[in-house]
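Everyone, study these two lines:
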Amino acid sequence: MEWIADPSIWAGLITLVVIELVLGIDNLVFIAILAEKLPPAQRDRARVTGLLLAMVMRLLLLASISWLVHANQTAHDLARSEL
């Protein structure tokens, strides 16, 4: 529980939140610009589809990074153990 009092953890969390907000706004602007080029009947569907795909992509990337961190710890533990 001592990690809660660590300022570097909070600084990292705030940095990640700000980056996510900036990238989320960037996605909204990009999808809105592209959707405006479509016929009016397809714009809403394109916006929803684009936002859903962006969210799914972020979740997949987050899961991949989580898996890599776990795999890295496992490989590190295996390298330190004697066979």
User: Anything to note?
Assistant: The chain has one domain: 2-80.
